Amino acid sequence: MKQEYSLKGVCIWCLKDKSAGRTFRKQPHTITRQLGATPIGFDICDACNAYFGTIGRKDLYTFSPEVALIETFTNLRFLAQPQFGAAPELRSRFFHFHPATATIHPTGRFEPKARFLKNFTRQFKRGIYEVFLQEYHRNTQNGQADCFAKVREFARWDKGNLPLYFLQNREAFYMEEAPGCPSLTFDASALKEINEAGFYQMRLLGQLFFLEVTDSARLTRAAYLRKQLKEGAGKSSSFGELVRMELITDLDFTVRSLGIRTEILEPVL
Ligand SMILES: [Zn+2]
Questions:
Q1: Phi, psi for 146 (deg, rounded to 5)
Q2: Which range among 31-35, 60-64, 99-103, 145-149 shows the weakest confidence by mean pLDDT?
Q3: How far is the CA of 216 from the centre of ligand 1 (A)?
Q4: 169 alpha carbon to ligand 1 midpoint, in Å?
Q5: Residue 131 Cα, ligand 1 centroid: separation in angstroms?
Q6: Concatenated DSSP letters of 35-60
Q7: N or C terminus: which one in the chain shows less Cβ crowding within 10 Å?
Q8: How close is the Cα of 136 to the center of ligand 1, in Å?
Q9: Predicted confidence (pLDDT) at residue 267 exceeds the cutoff of 60
Q10: Cβ–Cβ contacts within 10 Å for residue 180, how many?
Q11: Distance from Cα 80 to the centre of ligand 1, integer Å
């Protein structure tokens, strides 16, 4: 029999099982392979697995949550290198990079319009929450828990809206924890924070995000974020403000602050 990627037999996203026709045959990468990640998850049904990486014809968006992640982190990774020569070219659907002038230009697929940027932001945030639940389940086998209902609604069903915060990283844009192989940690203190504060602190590809993963976060938010800002300042002088992402461009993913010029990021309202 072919291997199945299932432990509990219930999908963490749609909460359906084989009796409801769900299959678990495709290898589910918990973080997209295109960012160099290798962890393989389980209990992610084939339909949900496909959903995050593809766009249907009837879809509101022109690109998937995973493409939004890939575009953002690929840019950061490439543009923040000390020397662009290390990689031959920026592999991007949305941007061309001209090394001689250190400028990026949009391709036709990136529209510098408010609506496009709003969609990009939403897809990026959904992709971040997708990574959270998949990695959480891979580490704890508890991803089907009811407390993550809002994460499911937002990431998988595109309903509601969950906030995403990050600490601005003023100097070292791309400090990879484990170069080439991103994954998340869920040690005792991370699990305690999820259970008590409803927050998860995600270190991913050099960035530090804060996610509201359960309803408790609404009550703890103010105190929790204040504490993170204080601790962030202590951790490294390169961390600046704590930002609630309204637009993807709040995260300096085109690395303006390192002198990369761009012609694209003023939305035409
Ligand atoms: Zn599913």
A1: -60, -30
A2: 99-103
A3: 25
A4: 35
A5: 15
A6: GT---B--S--HHHHHHHH---TT-S
A7: N
A8: 16
A9: no
A10: 9
A11: 36
Nearest residue to 170 via CA among 207, 224, 225: 207
Can you give the pLDDT at residue 191? 98
Give the C-alpha separation, 246 to 248, whole Å: 7
- Domain for residue 147, yes or no? yes
3-state secondary structure of 103: strand
Structural domain containing residue 36: 18-262
Length of the chain (residues): 269
Separation of CA 198 and ligand 1 centre (Å): 24
Residue 5 in any domain: the answer is no
The DSSP line for 190-232 is: HHHHHHHHSEEEEEETTEEEEEE-STTHHHHHHHHHHHHHHHH
User: Distance from the CA of 268 to the center of ligand 1, in angstroms?
Assistant: 37
pLDDT band at 160 (very low <50, low <70, confident <90, very high): very high
Which amino acid, 153? E
Residue 105 belongs to a domain: yes
* Pairwise CA distance, residues 141 & 126, whole Å: 21
Cβ within 8 Å of residue 57, ≥6 positions away: none
Centre of ligand 1 to C-alpha 102, Å, is 43
Asked if the model's pLDDT at residue 258 lies above 80, the reply is no
Domain count, the chain: 1
Find the 14 Cα to ligand 1 centroid distance in Å: 4
Report CA torsion sign: 254, 258, 263, 269: positive
37 Cα–ligand 1 center, Å: 21
The letter for the amino acid at 44 is: I
pTM over 0.90: yes
